[in-house]
Structure formats: C-alpha cells, structure tokens
Automatic annotation (TrEMBL):
InterPro entries: CarD-like/TRCF_RID, CarD-like/TRCF_RID_sf, DEAD/DEAH_box_helicase_dom, Helicase_ATP-bd, Helicase_C-like, Mfd, P-loop_NTPase, RecG/Mfd. This is Transcription-repair-coupling factor. It comes from Kryptobacter tengchongensis. GO terms for molecular function: ATP binding; damaged DNA binding; DNA helicase activity; hydrolase activity. Residues 716-869 form the Helicase C-terminal domain. One of its GO terms (biological process) is regulation of DNA-templated transcription. One of its GO terms (cellular component) is cytoplasm. In the C-terminal section; belongs to the helicase family. RecG subfamily. In the N-terminal section; belongs to the UvrB family. Keywords: ATP-binding, Cytoplasm, DNA damage, DNA repair, DNA-binding, Helicase, Hydrolase, Nucleotide-binding.
Amino acid sequence: MDFVERIFKIDKFERLGEFLKSNDTIINLKNVSGSLFSFIVAYVYHNIEGKIIVLVQDEEFGHKVADDLNFIIGENKVFEFIPDEDMLADDIDVLKVKFAYEYAQGEKIIILSVKQIDERIPLSKELNFYSFPISVGEKINYDHFVSYLLRSGFERKRYVESRGDYSIRGSIVDVFGFVGEYPVRIEFFDDEVASIREFDIFTQRSLRNLNRTLIVPKLVDVNVEMIEISKLLNDSICIIEDINLVIQALDEDIFEGVEFKKLINILRLEAGNFSGNLMDFSSKGQPFFNSSITLFSDEVSRMLKNGFEVYLLCDGNEQMERMRELVEETMGFEQMAKIHFKGKSLNLGFILMKDKIAVLTEHEIFNRIKARNFLKYRKFKGITLHELEMLKPGDFVVHVDYGVGKFVGLQKIKINGIEQEAVRLEYADGGILYVNLNYINRIKKYRGEEGVVPKLNKLGSAEWEKLKERTKDSIKRVARDLIWLYAKRSYVKGFKFSPDNYLQKEMEASFIYEDTPDQRRATIEVKQDMESEKPMDRLICGDVGFGKTEVAIRASFKAVLDKKQVAVLVPTTILAHQHYKTFRERLKNYPVRIEVLSRLVPRSKQVKIIEDIEKGDVDIIIGTHRLLSNDIRFKDLGLLIIDEEHRFGVEAKEKLRKMKVNVDTLTLSATPIPRTLYFSLMGARDMSIINTPPPNRLPIITKIITVDSPKFKDIVKNAIYYEISRGGQVYFVVDKIVEIEDVAKFLSGIVPELKFDVVHGKMKPSAIEKVMLRFLEQKFDILISTKIIEAGIDIPNVNTIFIYNAHTFGLAEIYQLRGRVGRSNRQAYAYLIIPPVETIGTNAIRRLSAIEEFTELGSGLNLALKDMEIRGIGNLFGKEQTGFINSIGFDLYCRILEEALEELKAQEFKEIFKDEKKLKKKFDAIVSVDVSAFIPDYYVDSDSERFSYYQKLYEAGSLDEIDVIRDELEDRFGKLPEEVENLIFVSKIKHLCEKNYIQRVEVGREYVVVILREEVLNSEVFREIVDVFSRGSNLKFEKRGKETRLVLKFKYSTSVRQNLVKFYGLLEELSVQFSDYERNFSTNP
C-alpha cells in the first residue's frame, strides 16, 4: 500500500471524514505533530467540495505545509499568500490579483498568513469583467485584442521581460499577464487564434501548448470593487493553526462575525476555550537523535519490537541508499528490511502512538535542512545571461586573426550578385573589417577583468601575432613545471589509506546539506587518491559556500581513522580560527583532537601543542605559515590540506613543495576555473571542480531597496533588529572609505544601542585582523567595511549584509560579497541599497536585478563567475597571466592555453601522455553557396539578436543542435523565410564538412567543388571520400596550384538547392564512416 494512502487509512481520518459530511461547523484536533498537519489539509482537499483556506501564524511553517502538500497531493495544487514584510506595494498588488484569481477558480489550497487577513482583493466579478479569455481556433479581431492590451495598462516591449509586458512580431503576440507562472505566446492566422503556448522568460522558448488562456491585467490600478479577505472565510473550509492563539497574537478577534462554512481548528495548547467537537490524533514529534545512527537504530529497534510500522523518508534516492547502508551496519539486514525507506521526504517527522506508525525524516536525524522549492516573486526582470553575452554595437570584440576591435553591426553585401550579410568591425585608426559569416566563430565578445578597457589593435600590424606568441610561451613555461611535478609524483610511493568504515559513513551522512553531484564526485576522487599508493596532489576548485571545506573534513577524518595526522594550512590568522571552529563543530561527536596554532594562541599553549604534535597526540592541527616553522615536527603526517595556496609567499610555497613529495596533499581554491579548461589540464594537475551549491542550502533572499523609499529607514532598522534578535551579526559594505562616516551616522541614528566597528583597506593588516577577530568573537554587532571582506572571511554567525550604493560595484563583486552570508543553516538576507531609480537608470537596475533574481549560489549568474574564472587562472598559473587575459580577451586566452597544453603533451611530454586519448581537433570549414543564406532584418530586426543566431548556428556541435535553433527561430519569430531555410541548410553542411575533413566547399547551379584538408590527401581517408563521392556523382579531379579540387556533378540537378540536398546526402553517408577521434593517418596511399 502507498505510504500516503496508509496514513489516510487510520481511523482518525475516517472520523474526520464523517465530520466533513456532517452538519457540524467546528471540529478541534489535538496532538497534531510535525507534518501530520499537512496530511489533515490534504485529506480535507480530497474529501470535500469547496474552497480551502489554511491560516498559519508562523510563515515559515506555512512554507513547510506547502512543500509537504507537493509530496502528498502533487505539485501545483497550492497557492501561498505569504508576502515578505518588505515586499514592495506593487509586488503585493500582483499577489492580490493572483489570490483573487486562484480563489475564484477554487482549484487550489490557499495558504494564508494571519497577518494578511485584513488585506483587500478584487471581487471575482471584476476579475471576469476586466480579463480577456482566449481559446485556440477562436475568431478574435487582432486589432481589437492589441487595443485591449493598451487600454488595460500593458506596455509594449521588444521582448516580454516582466508582468505587464507584451510584444508583437508579425502574427505572434507575447503577453505576460498577472496570473499564471509563465507568459503566453499567441499566434494568429488572420483573425483566428492558431496556437497558444507558454514560454520561458529567460530563453524565450515555448514550453507547452495550451488550448485556452486568460489574460488578466493588474486590476488594482483601475477602479475595481474590492473585498476584505476575512469576508471570504464565510464561504470557505478553513483549517486554522489554533484560533485562540491567532486571536491572542493579533490582539483582536478578527473572526468576529465570521460564520465558517467549516472550521478545522488545530489546537497547539489544550488549555483555553473552544467550541465544537474534539478529536485526539495521539501523535508526537520525531525524537532528537543528535546526528547519531546508533541512537536512531536503538530507538527504531525498540519501535519494531513494539509492533510499530516505521517509515524513513529520505531526501532523494541516493540519500536513501546511504541510509540503508548505515542502518544495516548498525541494526543488521533483517531489522533494516522491516523499515519502509522512501526517496521523498516531508519537512517534519511524526509518530502516531495509538496507530503504531512512525514517520521519520532522515534530515531531522542529522539536523539537516530539507531542500524545497522557493517561490520567487519578481520585481524587475533582471538582465539575462543571454543578454549580457549578446553583442551590441560599440562592444569590444576579439577576432582570432586581427585582434581587438569594436562591433559596429551587420551589413548587407553582394557576393557574385548574391545578397549576404557580413559582420562589420572597427579597428584602431578607423580601420574597417568585414567578416564573412563563415568566419563568425573567429569573433568573440571581449572579456577581461571587470572594469578593464582594452586597447584597439591596428589592422595589418604584426603586433597581434607577436602578442599571441608571447602568451603561448608564457603559458608553456608555467605548464611545463606543473607537468614535471605531476610526473615526478607518479613514481613516488605514499601511504595507502583504508576503505571507508562505518564511522566514516555516519560522519558523512550527518552533513547538514545534501551533497551535490560535483561534491560527491570530488569526495570520491579524493578518497580514490588516498586509497592508492601514489601520493595525492589534488586541487579542488569551487565558489564560496559550495562545500570544499566539507570534502576536506571528510578527507581529514579518513586520515585520522588510519591513525595519521593532518595539517591544515591557511593564509590568515582569522581563517585559521574559522576553520578550527568549523572542524571542531563538525567532528564534535568523535574522539578527534583538533588544535589551532597562530600568534593569537598563548606562547605556553603553543609549546604544549607543538610537543603533542610530535608525540602524535594531536590528530588535526590548523594554522598559518607558523606550521611551516622548523620547530614543528609530526609523528606521522598523512595529509596536508592547503587553503588558497596562491596567497602564500614564495618561501612558504617552496617549503610546501618539499612537504608535498610523499604526503597526500589537498589544495582548496575559492576561485573557479572554466570547466572547458579542466579537461585540458588533466594530466598536468589532478583537479576536482565543484560548480554547484548544496541544493538544500537556503537561498540568500536578495532585495533592492532605494534610499528615497518612505520605508527605507524602517526596512534597514527592522532587518538589523531581526538579525540581532536571533543572535546574529550584520555586514554593512561601502564602496568608498569616505562613505563610512555617513553610514556610521545613519546607523547611530536608527539603531543607537548597537555596537559597530570599521575596517578598510588603508588600515594596517594587524589592525584589520584585530577588528575581524573581535567580530568573530561577537564583541560587536555591525561591521562597516569596504569590499576587503569580499574574500577569505567566513563567519557563519553573520547572515545579513547591506551593500551601500550597490550600483557602483561590479556584478562579480556583489556576487562574492553576498556569498559572505548564508554560510549556516539560517536564512540569509542581502540588501542592495541604491539611490532613486531615476538617477541611476533602468539598465543599472536590471543588472542588479540579475543578482536579486539569482538568489541561489551558482544558479546561473555566470557573468559574475566569468570574472572569478579569470582570477582562478591567475591563481593557478600566476598573476602575469591576468595581464595576457586583459590584452587578448579571456576566450582567446583559453583557446591558446588549450593549444599550448596539447603541444606540450604531444611534443615534450609525449612519453608521459602516450596513452591519453586525443580528441579530434576542431577545424573550420568554409561553405560558399550561390543563394542568399542569411536572416532578413524584417524577420529578426535586432543586429545583436541576428549575430547571436549566426554564431549559434555556425558553432553548433551537432545536427540536432541546429534543428533546435531552427525550431527556436520558428517558435519566436514565426514561419522561416527562404533565406533562413537556406542558412539552416548551409550551417548543417558546414558542420558535416568539419566532421569529414573537408576544408572548403563551393556550391553552384551546375556543380559542387570540394577542397579537402591537406593531411588527408595521402591517407586511407582520401580513398573513402573518393569512393563515396564517385558513387553518388560524376566526380572529376582538378589541380589549381597546390590545391587538389574534387568537382562533383549530379545528374538531373538544375538548381543550387538541388545540389545542396544531394551533396548533403553524401556528407551524411561519409560521417557514418568516420569516428569522433583523429585517425592515425597512413603516409602511404
């Protein structure tokens, strides 16, 4: 029997069902614990007709109920009206319209915060009057519909960006109304609605077809009749979290005069007055197991012995399998088999004492946070990654062959009388370059460090080629050392650690977040290294908060279980003490001795710790470069962990190099490197990349607030007091030192009793350290700082950050600053303070909104990550590399880096890499056709958008990818013109030519000319190509200079299009025969 069905089978639910059918109005339920509350809501939903409102006092509990209901009754059955307290009035108005709509539909459970009970929403009749229903096949006057959108306050945009926008492209109208999760795309055929599709606001791609939709305007902007929410209770089935406590909390009886249709009152206190029937569910909450599998197993064994059914709900199938293993090790297979494991979880466990059913959640056993989907109400539509990477006229670009120029736009040109489109670039001294679409993939948008303005190159100058050579030579110098070190270590024998035991598994299971795939992979790779005889030397790259420290703790524990010592080396005293706290907290349930060595530790204690290290009494020692001193001697060092190695001096690095020779070494870096380079660096450095944050880490709630808002002072004051009230602390970050005094005055005025201190870059390092340590020790409440806290500070107690004049910071800076909070299991908040919107412009707002919307770390704000990747390469290969990146652009730098590494592997180190599989190199094929193949501007009017599509088509990695782009064009812009159909066909031929060793193709009305790559002319490949071509056409050979040309003439072909189709068929046949890897070409024909 299904788990949910089993819970509903208990007799209490039968009695509840009888009440729902009876004429009784009120029933009181007591001893309703944990997520049993959500089961009661679900049971009511399944067993009675009518509108259901759930009233909660605790808003966080309301979110948990909504999340539980997704599990119990399926997704998209709940609407939450729980606005944030500082949500702007406009956003609350949008929510009110959605509330009115969902209530009128009556299909969803509405979860309502009691604080919102006196809010007013539009009446259902007003909703019907002002909305516009549309169905597929319906006849609608197109002009009348567009006129309706204008009258109703919708704003016309090029693309739909946020609620209240619409756009028109030919026969397609995109609209984002004020209800529904997604905007809709309505396609007309004359005055008939041909199709309705929901689409994604970021990709602009259609998601699914609809038969009908309802366009609802922002009703609160017009004079409509409203109703107080409390009046709706007369018509609703209400489930209330203790009505008496609600009345007490609000200090008024808001339910006076309300005649409930049905009221289910969940008592939280048994004392007090209540009317109606009483039912006892006899449940209690999940016991506290203190992250101990042993305690859990003992309790479950007792339950099973007493005849309980035990359900263990896990956060996903992988967690479920891990729990099976742990439980089997402590209870044995027979007992473990009696437990019902589930790969989905509720928020809170509960035990039905009389019914003898225990529903336990795995995340509560380990005091871990449960992952859940967070509802996000968008204020602005932030700039998308697609927009940020899209070229706009005036942007800097890098052409592989000609250097840094400026993108002017696209221009129509005629080649042999055929109209085509070319890219126009401008260089130094007014030089103009027209780039044929065949070469578009040699152009990339310039990316250097944020704020760097590149120097334009001069056409015809030799300087560009020299700069590329200098870059490659510099990379080779550094990479050569890396490869030598890697090769040397592979011949040294180290300690072989034991496989994981039960304690290791239990400790890992107690991690408060669910492992991400990247983190899991990194953990496996580290353990495989440790369990081999070759000494480990692994670098783990990952952004702040992505779980690198947890991997290091697991590796440390593994070493300690094998009686080995661990040294954790960090660049600053503050970091040493932070890591000390983290390691101790994480391993507090195990007999592991952890110590810290820094100049803050009293001299007498340092002497004792050093003695104990030599005796082997200290398992894990954490410290700064002090650990590298000559007086530190380990009894049996098994693992060295280095955090941010690039921040150590030359002398320290040299000592580390000697230490690493036969000790397993794990290096952590918070600056990521591009994943594409990860594969090139394999063999030069063992690396693990963690690109994703823990999925159940609470997203950082990010808000933009303007200083001219009437609520500005209250929002800041309330946010600070809220953080302080839960025992936390606050960062207040400014861009300039001169702003510190203004902020200090402002804070003294609104929170005079709180203590604050200041740090900035002009202070001495020792003074900064002193202030930071006092903050770490919670000696004051608010730290006013410049952006020097951007890296290397990790204080889990700080979970609110204000960024003053946020519009003056780079996106990468804001992204990293925001990452300073949200490092614990508490909800974190980031407030971006800006001047009045009209003074900084819409674009600045939209850039900040990109940060605001991507509330989750690593959730897609790759623009910020791009800047950090540049730093990452600087850290890995040395700071001088950053200069090269700024000169030639990040993308070309990465390309040269890959080439340099491949050349080293193939030439100087070919013996070491002889067994490494070599991927087939990417070559550019040139396709010339005697037909127009481009995107007309009447079809896509933006140069930037057309350029983006050209680039996507010519860089596509497969034919399927080209088909997806074709579908996207048709979806967004309507039926493809002939020129675009030709372009799609040409891009497919280009792709197949590149796979089949063809360098150039000319397709005319009478014949097709093929020029092969030189290296295949004396190989077996040449025979195969000739064989296929001669079977499908009349094939002739021509010699023009050094060039061998294959001329194909097809029977019965009288047009370019027919020749294209037939040649495409031959290419498809060829591609089946050629593998994805370079062939070892024979030198003999």
